[in-house]
Amino acid sequence: YVPPQVRKAQETLDDKKREELGRLKKMVNGLINRLSEPNLSSISGQMEELYMANSRKDMNETLTDILMNACVTAVAMPARLMMEHVLLVSILHHNVGIEVGAHFLEAVVKKFDELCRSDAEGKECENLLALIAHLYNFHVVHSLLIFDILKKLVSTFTEKEIELILFLLKNVGFSLRKDDALALKELITEAQRKANTAEKKLQDQARVRFMLETMLALRNNDMRKIPGYDPEPVEKLRKLQRTLVHSSGSGKETQLRVSLESLLSADQVGRWWIVGSSWSGAPMINDTNSKTQQKLHIGKVSSKIMELARKQRMNTDIRRSIFCVLMTSEDFLDAFEKLLK
Questions:
Q1: Where in the cell is it found (predicted)?
Q2: Is 163 helix (H, G, I), strand (E, B) or coil?
Q3: SS3 letters across 21-41
């Protein structure tokens, strides 16, 4: 039962919070709407001030919502606009804290996974994939995630997946080759094998051939063979990023080295990639392991001691074990050894 005056206080608190969040959303929205390359420095500065003035959780949620609404549309987003949005996330990720990029990345990956399964007709999947690709381009996420996504797409291998593989390779293929040439080689071999087995099923043979040619061009580091490949815009924005990131350590140590599986099961197993993230949920290890650990080896204990333990209300195995160890040890060293065991 909640007394009326307490209930009233809670309601006014909720209203206040809602009002604050609404105001925050308006401010962030205003900044994102004005986002462009020339004013990126001032906007990222204002965003950092907002992060200092508000709670991180509220800011992360607000920013992620607004960016998702802006970038994940049913029509293809202009590549330049997409890059600028992701660059803002990247600058905040390096200057404010890695939970900014981590929160955004998790939302994007989960949405991408959901849309991939639902057979959406629009260009949402491409837009989400572009977001992930640019998060990799601007050093928010490690190549591990990109390879995971590519492997997943290659394993499904329908027309839609082939489009997405081509799209991703065009955006980040050469960076992947630089980061992990061996993994890329394995992926290309797997794709060739898959193309041979799926040859009968797919109507659009030219598309598959084009994909394999693109992959071979990547392997041979031949940029001319990939139509529409232009590294210039990304390089230009990377230079801008270097000038806007405060800390000298803007590179590898802030990259989130997280796999696709970890991101999709974050609610079940916690977010280990964010330092200090609190987590309340089911235990990480399967229950079977914990049950075997509960049976502590305290040797044979006399019934007299067990009776004493019961009288002292030692009601769990572990409490009883500790009590018995303390009561039956010869000296402090013996007790210490047994407790460690």
A1: Nucleus, Nucleolus
A2: helix
A3: HHHHHHHHHHHHHCCCCCCHH
Pairs from 196-201 (Cβ < 8 Å, separation ≥ 24): 198/157
Average pLDDT for 194-198: 81
Nearest-CA neighbor of 113 among 69, 53, 164, 56?
164
Rounded Cα–Cα distance for residues 209 and 224 (Å): 17
Residue 17's CB is within 10 A of a number of other CB atoms, namely: 11
Q: Where would I find the H helices in the chain? A: 4-33, 40-53, 56-71, 79-95, 98-118, 124-137, 143-156, 159-179, 181-197, 205-219, 232-244, 260-264, 266-269, 287-294, 303-311, 317-328, 332-340
Q: Whole-angstrom Cα distance, residue 68 to residue 104?
A: 9
Euclidean distance between CA atoms 262 and 265, whole angstroms:
5
Give the pTM.
0.75
Cα–Cα distances in angstroms (integers) from residue 302 to residues 218, 305, 310, 340, in the given order: 73, 6, 13, 21
Token couple for 167: 């799209």
Q: Would you call 141 helix, strand, or coil by DSSP? A: strand
pLDDT digits (tens, 9 = 90+) for 100-138: 999 999 999 999 999 888 877 788 888 999 999 999 999
Measured N-to-C along each axis, helices 303-311 and 317-328 cross at an angle, to the nearest 10 degrees, of 120
Average pLDDT over residues 220-230: 79
b/e per residue 32-68 (b: at least 16 CB within 10 A): beebeeeebeebbebbeebbeebeeebbbbbbbebbb
Would you say 146 and 133 are in contact if contact means Cβ atoms under 8 Å apart?
Answer: yes
The angle formed by the CA atoms of residues 127, 133 and 139, to the nearest 5 degrees, is 140
Q: Which tens digits make up the pLDDT trace of 13-39? A: 788 888 999 999 999 999 999 999 999
- Burial grade of 153 (CB within 10 A; 0-12, 13-18, 19 or more): buried
Tell me the C-alpha to C-alpha distance, in Å, between residue 308 and each of 216, 251, 311, 317, 327.
Answer: 75, 60, 5, 14, 10
Q: Contact, 301 vs 329, CB < 8 A?
A: no
